[in-house]
Amino acid sequence: MKEKPIVTAVLTTYKRPVEIVGRALKSVVEQTYEELEIILVNDFPEDEKLSKELIGLCRGFERNVVYLPMKKNSGANAARNYGAGVSKGAFIAFLDDDDEWSPEKIELQMQKMTDDNIGIVYCNTWINSEKSHSIKPRFKNAKPEGNIYPVLFGKNVVGSTSFPLIRKKAFDEVGGFNETMPALQDMELWLRIAQSYTVKYIHKPLGTYYFYIGDRISSHSDRRIAGYNKIYDEHKEYLEHHKKAKAGFDILGVTLYINAGDRKYAWKLLMEAIKLAPGNIKVNLFTLIKWIIRWFVPAKIV
Questions:
Q1: Of these four, 97, 200, 214, 234, which has the most CB atoms within 10 Å of its CB?
Q2: pLDDT tens-place string over residues 29-75
């Protein structure tokens, strides 16, 4: 019988209370997939008390959990790359310290990794909103598979780093997370992998993303725009020759610039998107309405 490949789970944490980290780590330990390597990367080793608590947490599970402290606080991208760099798995999955996985997540995603050309298997997730006191799936309808590289410019359907399963070879080939990205680092990585690999999707929610009141879309707007512009610079040649993808990227930019309070530049992007893809009537109209609303109700910048 063929042995199952190892999957490495990398959970990164920064200043998070140990009780919350424990909730996330417990959801990894309880995975039904047996060949699982578990790594906890502490990106705030300066806090000796918290570090000792995290070490104790790791030792409290029956499954082996490898504790890795960074030399110093270096940011989430560096922490993820550090964990990936020492991993033994042929596949890798990341988890933020305040999210959770469903027990069958890795097992179901591995069932979709049917050939070497698949770089990512992403999935639907539950959104637990503190603001609305509700839990609902992120997607109502199935999302695209195959070559989703053009799609990703308009919408990061793959989503947060907490939920895709990634082929380690693909991750290594593109150089992992770009540690210079000020924001949108997840989308930027998915784009680089999707350039060379196909992507699969599971519609069943396989994890829970916790959305807190402080996580407003307008947060860190300057960093988001800087990340958006870096992505454009990286993929400029492709976007200049593919109108539909560029139109989608423009629409994404409209939202970012609206939330930054720059309605003038948002308008410029919207007009360009309409010119490039006039047939996207529903999306163009929805974005126009959003722009008009923001004219009367400016976004709160934080």
A1: 97
A2: 999 999 999 999 999 999 999 999 999 999 999 999 999 999 999 99
